[in-house]
Amino acid sequence: MLLELAARSRVLFVGGKGGVGKTAVASAVALAQAQAGRRVLVVSTDPAHNLGHLWRRDVGDRVTGLAERLDGLEIDPARTTDAHLAVVGATVRRLMPEHLAGEVDKHLELARDAPGTHEAAILERIADTVESGPAQYDLIVFDTAPSGHTARLMTLPETMGAWTDGLLRRQHRAERFGAALRRLEDDPAGLMGREDPRAARDHEIRRILLHRRRRFEHLREVLLDAGRTTFVIVLAAERLPVLETIELHAQLSRAGVQVGALVVNKRSPADAGELLAARRVQEQAYLAEVRAALPRVPIVQVPLLPGDIVGPDALERFAHELGRDVDTPA
């Protein structure tokens, strides 16, 4: 069921509490889709990356081949923020008077560690990937950061879009005021036939803001399109992951993002001794709690496996488990 869901999607987000196996699920689904013949990119947005460890190779902040038809990428928040601020700085310096360049540099340096800067930079990378990725890949799988960070990230396109709209309104008012001021200061006849640098700057600012707004509108459109995008929450059948799952589902629903499935990882066996049998009984109670809270979301259960899930062979076996034991709502 989960693999069929992925097969119908162009973008797949995998989220949940830290330590429940998000990277393993994201990688196994990506590998299964690549083996089915699709071109796949798996992207880690979690600052505590595990993609390279799981695949036993250096991945980092560049596209790296993981298997046939499968690439990987670990977004580096610090490098992404530096690149983001460099682009913003170059644009602002180009548009501001030269004597203000020092002030621009000081402002950007303060912004580097300001709340939300890393998130905004990562959101830009996600928006870029969602916009340009489909030309090269059939499926993009995002292995996201733990629940709270991801929920906020899902609401950011709308927030950033509203913020950009506000800037556009202010810029429009400033542009009109500037045009009126120039008509008072200058001889209108003297502007005929030559370029007004202030008007050119205003147009450039507007062009940049409109481009930014279109990018966030596109990302939000993709996030809300259940025909193209699927969100999967991974959890363990334990108290805190269950509570976080219910809360994350509520936050995503409020943002308009539909959850396609839950993956309950590391289910204890009933026939491997008293300890694990007792844990399974306890897990059943937590599973019942999830079913009661989210009755319409299909649940995939994956058994506790004897070894670590590391390397392509282990991921292939894990993907096989993801295709079994589905609890589909009536």
UniProtKB/TrEMBL annotation:
Question: What positions does the domain ArsA/GET3 Anion-transporting ATPase-like occupy?
Answer: 10-322
GO molecular function annotations of the record: ATP binding; ATP hydrolysis activity
Q: Which InterPro entries match?
A: ArsA/GET3_ATPase-like, ATPase_ArsA/GET3, P-loop_NTPase
Q: Does the keyword Nucleotide-binding apply?
A: yes
**UniProt keyword annotations, A-Z:** ATP-binding, Nucleotide-binding
Query: Where does this protein come from, organism-wise?
Result: Georgenia muralis
- Please name the NCBIfam families in this protein's record: GET3_arsA_TRC40
Protein name according to UniProt: Arsenite efflux ATP-binding protein ArsA
Q: Which family does it belong to?
A: Belongs to the arsA ATPase family.
